[in-house]
Amino acid sequence: MKHDILEEIVAHKKIELQHQKKAVPLHIMLGLASENMDRPTYSMRESLEKSDSSIIAEFKRKSPSKGWLHPKAVVSDIIPAYQANGASACSILTDEHFFGGSLGDLKKARQLTTLPLLRKDFVLESYQLFQAKAMGADAVLLIAAILNPEDCEMLANTAHTLGLEVLLEIHREEELKCLNPYVDMLGINNRNLGSFDTQVNHSLDLLPAVQAYLQKEKVYTPLLITESGIRDPKDVIRLRQEGFRGFLIGETFMKTENPGETLRSFIQTCTSHAD
Ligand SMILES: O=P(O)(O)OC[C@@H](O)[C@@H](O)c1c[nH]c2ccccc12
After folding, report:
1. Residues 195-202: contacts with CB within 8 Å, 24+ apart?
2. Residue 188 and residue 50: Cα distance in Å, rounded?
3. Using CA atoms, how far apart are residues 66 and 64, in angstroms rounded to an integer?
4. How far is the CA of 41 from the centre of ligand 1 (A)?
5. Does residue 133's CB lie within 6 angstroms of at least one atom of ligand 1?
């Protein structure tokens, strides 16, 4: 049987969470989150909607599929450069073991940018939403492949209570059952998190099923995002024409020496080739 990395990540996350909760108990983390309730927040959905390029630029040092991309990447270099060069939002990988990130990266990023910040991690419980709020996130990722619909709705509802927007990620049509009224953005991940197989066309393949579902369930109106494996500005142009309004890109920027510069020329190509 093929080894499923997603199962390994979730198993590791559960142990990690036990340690984190021992170090900072739930009620303390909730308190830290509430202290952040008054700070200004930035809507990722609005930022993507009003942009012509709608790029969510990701800060990711390594990944299980690609290994190290940029081992010495520093938040204070890259996040301000992402903002200066036209990103609509930033995604910060906070998983340490598999992606080389940390909650400290998110906290630092918050001090350096007014872009909407997405906490990118493997969220299983509300505790992680409190962490996200405490560290300055504006939005959180929920991954349908690791949640059941009830937990997903509970987490999305809690996120909204904390003033966090929700990006729900799906890879397969069946995962649409995790949609709920609290989902602000629906992301189609072009990468299968179990096998790492990544095809940009996956978003287009799944789109008719997503549109049919949204047509049927008219109360859900999430903004459509495409995630992973985007290397060519032409893909962004093509996917925008089909209705996508957010493009989550990590590796294409992070594997270069100057991710901000790479973002700048990527956006330039996108906008100069669009009608
Ligand atoms: O580096 P890429 O191929 O541009 O992909 C970015 C982002 O979509 C990817 O990091 C991602 C999408 N969903 C995730 C869930 C967990 C961790 C990482 C991810």
Report:
1. 195/2, 195/4, 196/5, 196/64, 196/65, 198/65, 198/228, 198/229, 199/229, 200/226, 200/229, 200/230, 200/231, 200/235, 200/239, 202/171
2. 20
3. 6
4. 23
5. no
Find, among 71, 144, 139, 146, the residue nearest to 101 by Cα.
71
Look up the ipTM and state it.
0.98
Rg of the Cα atoms in the chain: 17
Q: Is the CB of 235 under 6 A from ligand 1?
A: no
Ligand 1 neighbourhood includes 226 CB (under 6 angstroms) = no
The DSSP output letter for 187 is E
Model confidence at 236: pLDDT above 90:
yes
Give the whole-angstrom CA distance, residue 231 versus residue 18. 37
Residue with tokens 């340490």: 96
Cβ atoms 263, 229 nearer than 8 A: no
Atom of ligand 1 nearest to the CA of 99: 17
Q: Is the CB of 120 under 6 A from ligand 1?
A: yes
Q: What is the pLDDT of residues 147-198, one digit of tens each?
A: 999 999 999 999 999 999 999 999 999 999 999 999 999 999 999 987 888 9
Q: Where are the domains of the chain?
A: 5-274
Which residues, in sequence order, are bridge partners of residue 117? 90
**Topology of the domain comprising 5-274:** TIM Barrel (3.20.20)
Name the pTM for this structure: 0.97
DSSP structure string for 216-266: HSTT--PEEEEES----HHHHHHHHHTT--EEEE-HHHHTSS-HHHHHHHH
Residues 6+ apart with CB under 8 A from 18: none
